Amino acid sequence: MTRPQLGACYFPEHWDSSDWRSDAEMMRDLGLDFVRIGEFAWGVIEPEPGQINLDWMQQSLDLLYEHGIKVVLCTPTATPPKWLVDSMPDMLATGRDGRPRTFGSRRHYSFSHQGYRRECARITTEIARRFGTHPAVIGWQTDNEYGCHDTTISFSQTDLLAFRDWLAQRYQSVDALNRAWGNTFWSMQYASFDEVELPNLTVTEANPSHWMDYRRFASDMVVEFNRLQVDILRRLSPGRDITHNFMGRILDFDHFDVGAQVDISSWDSYPLGFLDQERDLHDQAHRLAFARAGDPDFQGFHHDLYRATSGGRWWVIEQQPGPVNWAPNNIAPRKGMIGLWALEAFAHGAEAVSYFRWRQAPFAQEQMHAGLLRPDRSPAEAFFEAGDVAEAIRSIDWPQASCGQVAIIMDYEAAWAWSIQPQGEDFDYFRLLFETYRSLRKFGVSVDFISPDQAGSRLDEYALCVMPGLFSCSPELAHAMAQTKTPILLGPRSASKTGEFQIPASLAPDLPDAIRPLTVTHVESLVTGLDVPIEGRSGSFVHWREFTSPHADADVLWQTADGLPALVRRDNLTYQCGWADPALMSDILRSACCDAGIQTFDLGDGVRMRRAGDHAFIINYAGTDFDLALLGDVHIVVGGPAVPPSGFAIVRL
Amino acid sequence: MTRPQLGACYFPEHWDSSDWRSDAEMMRDLGLDFVRIGEFAWGVIEPEPGQINLDWMQQSLDLLYEHGIKVVLCTPTATPPKWLVDSMPDMLATGRDGRPRTFGSRRHYSFSHQGYRRECARITTEIARRFGTHPAVIGWQTDNEYGCHDTTISFSQTDLLAFRDWLAQRYQSVDALNRAWGNTFWSMQYASFDEVELPNLTVTEANPSHWMDYRRFASDMVVEFNRLQVDILRRLSPGRDITHNFMGRILDFDHFDVGAQVDISSWDSYPLGFLDQERDLHDQAHRLAFARAGDPDFQGFHHDLYRATSGGRWWVIEQQPGPVNWAPNNIAPRKGMIGLWALEAFAHGAEAVSYFRWRQAPFAQEQMHAGLLRPDRSPAEAFFEAGDVAEAIRSIDWPQASCGQVAIIMDYEAAWAWSIQPQGEDFDYFRLLFETYRSLRKFGVSVDFISPDQAGSRLDEYALCVMPGLFSCSPELAHAMAQTKTPILLGPRSASKTGEFQIPASLAPDLPDAIRPLTVTHVESLVTGLDVPIEGRSGSFVHWREFTSPHADADVLWQTADGLPALVRRDNLTYQCGWADPALMSDILRSACCDAGIQTFDLGDGVRMRRAGDHAFIINYAGTDFDLALLGDVHIVVGGPAVPPSGFAIVRL
Amino acid sequence: MTRPQLGACYFPEHWDSSDWRSDAEMMRDLGLDFVRIGEFAWGVIEPEPGQINLDWMQQSLDLLYEHGIKVVLCTPTATPPKWLVDSMPDMLATGRDGRPRTFGSRRHYSFSHQGYRRECARITTEIARRFGTHPAVIGWQTDNEYGCHDTTISFSQTDLLAFRDWLAQRYQSVDALNRAWGNTFWSMQYASFDEVELPNLTVTEANPSHWMDYRRFASDMVVEFNRLQVDILRRLSPGRDITHNFMGRILDFDHFDVGAQVDISSWDSYPLGFLDQERDLHDQAHRLAFARAGDPDFQGFHHDLYRATSGGRWWVIEQQPGPVNWAPNNIAPRKGMIGLWALEAFAHGAEAVSYFRWRQAPFAQEQMHAGLLRPDRSPAEAFFEAGDVAEAIRSIDWPQASCGQVAIIMDYEAAWAWSIQPQGEDFDYFRLLFETYRSLRKFGVSVDFISPDQAGSRLDEYALCVMPGLFSCSPELAHAMAQTKTPILLGPRSASKTGEFQIPASLAPDLPDAIRPLTVTHVESLVTGLDVPIEGRSGSFVHWREFTSPHADADVLWQTADGLPALVRRDNLTYQCGWADPALMSDILRSACCDAGIQTFDLGDGVRMRRAGDHAFIINYAGTDFDLALLGDVHIVVGGPAVPPSGFAIVRL
Q1: C202 and A42: CB-CB below 8 Å?
Q2: Which residues contact B118 (CB under 8 A, 6 or more apart)?
Q3: pTM reported for the whole predicted model
Q4: Contact A204, B106 (CB under 8 A)
Q5: Which residues, in sequence order, are CB contacts of A483 under 8 Å at separation 6+?
């Protein structure tokens, strides 16, 4: 395998140009391969309307090139300058509460605004025309972190007009819309597309079909917005890779759609920030145990997800280098973790990892965000750990990445649907996927995510496929499920709606009679404490339970303590009739893996493994040594028999 | 007694008309007596302004009549169509935050809007003229669930103008208003009614007298709004009963005022939804114990309350048929409860119970709300339990309802007053009443609610009257209290204000010297954990305690552990100087019942009894059998000696 | 020492004038020296624009003078009348959410509004011209409780325009502003001052430098607003003292700046209200233990703080007289506390204490707020306890107040900075100071607060100086720190920013190389439960920890259990590398006091001591007797050997 690349995010415009040469020298000496520059720099690039200033960037690119540092350039469209916003104030994103979200930080725009799109095309063209073929430039990043700061779903009049157009395209006739949404309910009929309103300020909840289309529209606006830049870059910077930097747990747009436009999906990995912020995923004991290491699965989850979104090529383009500034609490990493996170990304197949940022800024919003260098240019902890990584990527013979053993279907529409209609206060789609993923990962199983669209053609590649909470089952997917021999674990709530967000005519799951294992007659959401134990098994259904009528050809494998079907199998389809708590999830998946011939280990809470052919990477988030002998008779390729905390090993199984 | 009636809420316009005949057949075969139709149907009735389409309703009514199904028709005014809202956008209700609440769900109107009232009169006239004398039509429901979704207290400019008019009528001169409100405080004087503002966006709290009048105004607007429809229906549909469907725990308007306009008070009873939603009334253990049965007192409370609001005639017009969609969690009922809830309503004197809804809708906001039929027309659990009820109402000889033993005064003004000025974070009037009610009901005591106005003439009908938290005591009520021999339990906080929301000139309680048992010199609200134990008694004052100076002719019955009066009696008036925790409340009421000659039982947490003359109904919400022998030597009329969970019995005492 | 003065807040305009003479007689007989009148009376003083009505006030002043009662007059500017607001609606303060805060309570104005300032000058002139030299008038209070109800930081267009002017004055060129704020970050550059926006509705957090200047601007507006009135009063009422009544824990403006304008800082002391409201300062057990006495340190903290703000002269101008109306719960004081609070204020050097209010109002917002008299004119508990105080101030020979032993630096800019950039969810500057103060006070140490500006010249007066969390260190203060021999305890987070809110060029703390004990390389905020124990000591760092590199000349006194510097000393400067929990704080300060030769006692949770030369006052908030013998061999001047709960003693040490 080509060795992984190491980089840093660099903002030369924040520093005196007299520092630039020495920066390049230090980068080279540290072993960095590339830097990412230009992000957020619109104000420097175009200080007044039309007055383009790119000479500083030229100077920086030339200097970097001279030192052998390659460059990923960014379009600066996440931070439109003040004069631009003042020229079209209706470009601002508007909150769910109806208030415009003003200039003064970043992402202050609505994706649907045509005027702003034109401005983005113009500035992208300017930069790409100048540097598209610069020898230092190896790639481009569009904008920054779509979805961050909750601007994807914007509620301005601009958005409303664009939504009406989008609906007219989708439904062609307003009667079709009224039928699809069931607007006869509560007299919500519209007489024309121009009557359609935003769903955000209604007296009680708006129609879920209305919301669902608004979420689809919002996602499509991101996709349209991104495509505009991609098209320009393809034309003006041939042969360079294009990426966009995704964030963790952002579900507001379909990352498969954006990922399909670019060459490389990249993401911004902040393990400690995410652990402290995403508190609903972890209890306090877990958060404290991993406070300085990060959750052992959050990174892997996104590594595996974003490996899928662009068809295999992916990067970590921002990697946490120390304490950050945006989590509720910003904790210092345990020694070794800053490097281990990069190695873990490589283990999951990343082509590159780039630390954010080269040097800590002493001013403005992120002054408390660490860098490889401190504000005074002295090296921070991350500088040394990045050096260790630079050495490792040169000394290790990296095994070729390979396909995972189990596929999990990631369905962005389900994320939207179940946030629109949770039906129970604890039903969160991301958490459902995440708990499934974690359960498999504790067994040492390598997981791939695939989209519902991809699933149609790829089920046969996996020994097992899991699709909890799928929103709606397309005919193509249903056909593939009927054709494949791959065991599939469905439920809870999978395929429970039509594409219009209605209950299917024959009730859920909306599968052909020829394969449907059962019919869901009704469901219940379970208040905390009201669990449904499973007969003869550890663990219970929590949050959600389904009452079902199994098909005559199906077998009830497990049942609840109150005597109802809990796990029902018909041929290769197994339906799980509730949300399994961790103990039950583990029980179900161990059994499913066993049936599927997938080897499982007991890695516990803090050690993870990713396979690469007959090799496996071992990553230790835990606070104690991990004895590789627990994996059986393995050949140690990198590392010693005991993998220390923050340690890494490669074995041949 | 005439046998109770059983019905369902039916929305023919949601289904293909080819289903209507078979619907009617199934209803008849199930034993339904009636359906409610037309609710929310404005969009179908008048798809364009002035284009009235009622033929579908004619067809439906004729079909139902043909099958012996009677009909309650609804005015569709809870869901004004889009074209109507667009023609007068200022009709929208406005939130406390000053934002209009837009089209897209329901109840998107302000009660005070004259233009919208005219439209409601017009559509009501259209429907009533067409069907007012249709032989199937036995009654009418106005609008739907006034008070739901918090639109009663609206803050638009329309509301402000109407409020100024209302104030001008009430006070005649602005000086009178300034005096009544005490506006000299903080320089809040107004020079004319046109200067009066809304109370919602002030820097710190607005004047409580200002708020109190705004709450009275808001309630009056509902009453005016309803009267308009009632007047039309009386004229165009003579001899039919009129009702409105109240909700549980809605306190935003005076239900006695609306109830007085209609023939029948009805309400929408969702035991499991309410239990999970109204969490401040129950601790977690209680919620879990009754998660599938409902709180044993919440339904009875409202049965007894709404029996009072229209002078005795009342219905449950929407009865939960399975999991609903609007509570934080939506749990499936325990087997038998869907039927038992109906029987319990009949035990409390309901003339009719109607399940909501006939068939679960597969689309729009309530697609997760169960019905008697599933979306695919297959029968749900509720279908069979409704059938059991249909049989029971035909086979049981229902004892004639009778007056309760104890009266509790329900004072809507107190609900407004103590939410405006709680003075302690835990002072909630509904909870105060509810805890009092529960305490009596655990003793097997039958309770009636009466309004402060009714109390004046009805105190003698009861063996005991309880009036905690009464806002202001009218001269008529004070006179009645002085005349009656019925023991009355007052306090905490009873009669502590004048009608203008001022402290009475002689301090609280504001009663004539001839009967006042004590003077409240000052009060304190108690933070959680700061309890005031009662000497020699179980339990404590919590939340609230009053410091008092007993009248010379009064006796201090009980005192606090710190030596102050806790329970003070003068003649038939007993004043309770604090909020009693459940143990103390039980102690006080057991003693009061004993003194009043009221027999008490120990029914525990889950069993309830309602008397009807010398008969009594036994309703078992608990998870274990109830042995009727615990009631002493009773004759079992319906049921066996052990009443099972979800079971029902009738005994003669 | 002159004996302390006792007063009450009096609102004659709330009562029938026939009561005024008898009020004055009762005040005289009770032993009151003065009353405060005129607050909030604008509506009575000027019922219509320009129609001035002050005869009632003349009558009241004359009557009071006749009975020997002196008067502090108030400007009524906290409650502009309706006609005034209607004449300039843009004077309303605007909330952070962008909504104007309307008429109907009080403080409905923005400090920056020039039109309202002119109106305030006019009404102040009217009143001062009429009564400036009235013989009863001994002083003036400007407005009421600046900062209360969160109107200091207002976000109207008026405020924005004033802010732009303020910035232009401060920076002179917009390039200077862009540099100071680091606006190159995220393309936030402004091309002119007229482009600057408010920081409140941005997509994600605004630039901290932007916020910091907005906070400084907001504070300056209060200072300008107050100066206008002070200048008029100085001119028209020569020889009278001017004060403003501060509140507890209000940090929105720099009280040293306002304090410098007036003669006397006064504050409004509501011990029980504050205890229940400021819950983040106390755990529940503590709140319950002192629910009826008040927190033993909250009053002393503010006594000591406001003694500093006007250079020594200070009053309690509103003293809680019983249950109030505005805390979450409003509890009745323990017998004796109403008097003890006054005596405690005198012990800390107050010239006067004034109970709020003379007679409880039966109407409007504060009808549940106790007074010395009840609404019916009967004496409340406070009446008798005030009488005891009146007797005590005449019978006790009050020792002369003296300088404290330890100085704590109170830095309002730090309060703003760390609320703008807490960096950890638990970093609250007030709490940091308060915990430091409490720790010293439990040792019986007398504390003075000084401002960073004052510190420059006053360090030598103290045996020890503590400055946790100082925002930015001025050259003057740094110079003084280098010159003094007084031991200084710095950190956490002290001097960690430049005045522009940037990280200092040589990192924190921003001190001259000649004295800096260490360099902070980076910091971390600690989630609850992630503590950092100190080697060989009780207690831990919590909330916040700093990683440091000690100077070669410094000694690491203590270190963390993970082997890093915890307490580092160089000469007289000791740096504390984290937020100490109470046990550790106590350990550090006991050690610091010991080194500084300050005698410490163990007064425990509920007893406090304030020195006055060789005398000391003992105040007992606890529920049990305090044995004076625990102080060693002291001479009891006032009181007995056992100080009872709510008791007071004076001893000579």
Answers
A1: no
A2: none
A3: 0.97
A4: yes
A5: none
Q: How many residues does chain A have?
A: 653
Provide the pLDDT for residue A456: 84
The alpha carbon of A345 is separated from its chain's Cα centroid by a whole number of angstroms, namely 14
From the candidates B213, B527, B528, B540, which should be mutated to test the interface with C, based on the most C CB atoms within 10 A? B527
C185 and C46 part of one domain: yes
Q: Which of B329, B364, B380 sits opposite A527 (nearest CB)?
A: B329
Residues of C whose CB is below 8 A from B98? 99
Nearest to C364 among B182, B191, B526 (CB): B182
Q: Could you tell me if A647 and A336 are in contact, meaning their C-beta atoms sit under 8 angstroms apart?
A: yes
Q: Which residues of B are catalytic?
A: 145, 318
B18 domain-assigned: no
Structural domain containing residue C578: 406-595
Of A145, A381, A413, A546, catalytic = A145
Give the SS3 label for residue B87.
helix
Q: Is residue B21, in this structure, part of any structural domain at all?
A: no
A569 and A620 assigned to the same domain: no
Distance from CA of C64 to the nearest CA of B (A): 21
Q: Count Cβ atoms within 10 A of the Cβ of residue C89 and give its class: 0-12 exposed, 13-18 middle, 19 or more buried.
A: exposed
The answer to whether the CB atoms of C331 and B526 lie below 8 A apart is: yes
Pairing state of beta strands B314-319 and B264-269?
Answer: parallel
Q: Do B329 and A425 touch (CB under 8 A)?
A: yes
Q: Are C463 and C581 part of one and the same domain?
A: yes
pLDDT of residue A1: 54
Q: What is the pLDDT of residue B632?
A: 94
**Chain B, nearest residue to A189 by Cα:** B43
Distance from the Cα of B81 to chain C's closest Cα (Å) equals: 30
β-strands C626-627, B406-409 pairing: unpaired
CA A363, chain centre distance (Å): 30
Written as six digits, the tokens of A72 are 């990923």
On whether residue C377 sits in a domain, the answer given is: no
Chain C residues whose beta carbon lies within 8 Å of the beta carbon of residue B100: none
Alpha carbon distance B403, B454 (integer Å): 14
Q: What percent of chain B has pLDDT over 70?
A: 100
CB contacts of A427 in chain B (<8 Å) are none
pLDDT(B427) > 70: yes
Those residues of chain A that have pLDDT short of 50 are: none
Question: Which residues of chain A make contact with C188, given a CB cutoff of 8 A?
Answer: 43, 79, 82, 103-105, 364
pLDDT digits (tens, 9 = 90+) for A285-317: 999 999 999 999 999 999 999 999 999 999 999
Separation between Cα atoms, residue A379 and residue A359, nearest integer Å: 9
One domain for residues B590 and B636? no
Co-location of A76 and A188 in the same domain: yes
Asked if the peptide bond before residue C379 counts as cis, ω within 30 degrees of 0, the response is no
Q: Is the pLDDT of residue B1 over 70?
A: no
Q: What is the mean pLDDT of each run of 10 residues along chain C (653 residues)?
A: 91 98 98 98 98 98 98 98 98 97 98 98 98 98 97 97 98 98 98 98 98 98 98 98 98 98 98 97 96 98 98 98 98 98 98 98 98 98 98 94 95 98 98 98 98 93 98 97 97 98 98 97 98 96 98 98 98 98 98 97 97 96 97 95 98 94
- Tell if the CB–CB gap between B207 and C47 is shorter than 8 Å: no
Across the interface, do C203 and A107 touch by the CB < 8 Å criterion? yes
DSSP assignment of B367-393 equals TTS--SB-TTS-B-HHHHHHHHHHHHH
Instruction: Tell me the three state secondary structure of residue B402.
Output: coil
Q: Which residues of B touch A504 (CB under 8 A)?
A: 362
**According to DSSP H, which parts of A35-149 are helical?**
42-45, 55-66, 82-87, 114-131
Rounded to the nearest angstrom, the minimum Cα separation between A247 and chain C is 15
| pLDDT of res. A401 | 86
